[in-house]
Amino acid sequence: MNVDTLILGAGAAGMMCAGQVPGRTLVVDHAAAPGEKIRISGGGRCNFTNTGTTPANFISENRHFAKSALARYTPRDFLALVERHGIAWHEKTLGQLFCDGKATQIVAMLRAEMARADLWLNTRVIEVAPGFRPDFRVVLERDGVRQTVQARNLVVATGGLSIPKMGATGLAYDLARQFGHKMTDTRPGLVPLTFPEGRFTDLAGVALPARVSVAKTGFDEALLFTHRGLSGPAVLQASSYWHEGAEIAVNLMPGQDVAAWLLAEKRASARKQLATVLAQRLPSRLADRLAGDWPAAPMADRSDAVLRALAQGLTDWRLKPSGTEGWRTAEVTRGGVDTRGLDSRTMMSGRQPGLYFIGECVDVTGWLGGYNFQWAWASAVAAAEGIAARR
Ligand code: FDA
Q1: Ligand 1 test: best mutation among 38, 162, 372, 379, most atoms within 8 Å of CB?
Q2: Which phi-psi region, left, alpha or beta, contains residue 289 (left: φ > 0; alpha: ψ -120 to 50)?
Q3: How far apart are CA 201 and CA 203, in angstroms?
Q4: Can you tell me which atom of ligand 1 is nearest the CA of 125?
Q5: Tens of pLDDT, residues 340-380
Q6: pLDDT in tens, 273-308
Q7: Which atom in ligand 1 lies closest to the alpha carbon of residue 9?
């Protein structure tokens, strides 16, 4: 079989690309259904973009790489597509756009957009070889039957390593290496941080707004204590910047002059216990736990220096995670195909004409909040335009 474009992976990026690319197109995926991560995303409502998307919301060894694609296909463009398909949406917080209904509406929309393309599910990629007119010979196995597809363009959109249970594989990285591309280090991103057994067990379920930082990068969002450690958006965001052995800094009362407040409480509520005072601004279980680190005494008996030290601890709590929950729960893969080998306008390989890498497999990792889908859409459209220009 001959096609103009063969797309490996019917996830967010692969489906988007299939809807935009001209010519005869085949999309293949080893899963039984397309867009499975879209289906479970955003708690089932898909946080499909972020209106505040800028290149600063992405992590990459080359922070300029994503600029061109993001500028040419914007959140507004994707929103226009969503509205054309009559999908109701709402803004939650911080520019995050979600479906009012189910995330499967986005899958159905992408499926409708790629109606011209063929989609083969339950299909394994056995071998990819560069050919000569057309440029690629790809051996596939569909329902146990092997067949060779010849394609002028090959788009790799098989995602990263996060959630192997959902079909994530390292195929994109293997193909990148096969064609001589370099890889940056890959590790789980947007993932809960773990601590030695029992460290926060008594606080499991407690949530509060906080600022969580790794070195100079900090996020003001919710923090959640879990049986295994720390989670919640602020921690997931920080996790993408964290590496083994590093500390995180937690500010439990961001934007507040905590020392001034504690000193004022000492004067106004001299007989109160510390836990009672802390519980005015923190969840009571957390207040009890923090106060438990200090000898019991009324506020009046605590020196100003002690209260200042306490304020410092509350606003700059240094913690050393022992690890992360790993690929099992990570929302994304940090790192991937080194962008230095790709054309930032088209996502085409600099080593093999007609070979494209898009979406999560590329070393471009978005923050939590719809940025990763925006990258999937934008990089997919960039590749589709590149392919159109190559015809
Ligand atoms: P994606 O993973 O979507 O697709 C890759 C496809 O390739 C899959 O269909 C897979 O089956 C297929 N494949 C893999 N290996 C293969 C092989 N060897 N052979 C054949 N096919 C193969 N982002 C966001 O912006 N907003 C959100 O709300 C969320 N929510 C969210 C929740 C959860 C639980 C997760 C795990 C992730 C998110 N994300 C998110 C991240 C987002 O899902 C992710 O960034 C995009 O799906 C990446 O799109 P891709 O198309 O690159 O990969």
Answers
A1: 372
A2: alpha
A3: 5
A4: 19
A5: 999 999 999 999 999 999 999 999 999 999 999 999 999 99
A6: 999 999 999 999 999 999 998 888 899 999 999 999
A7: 7
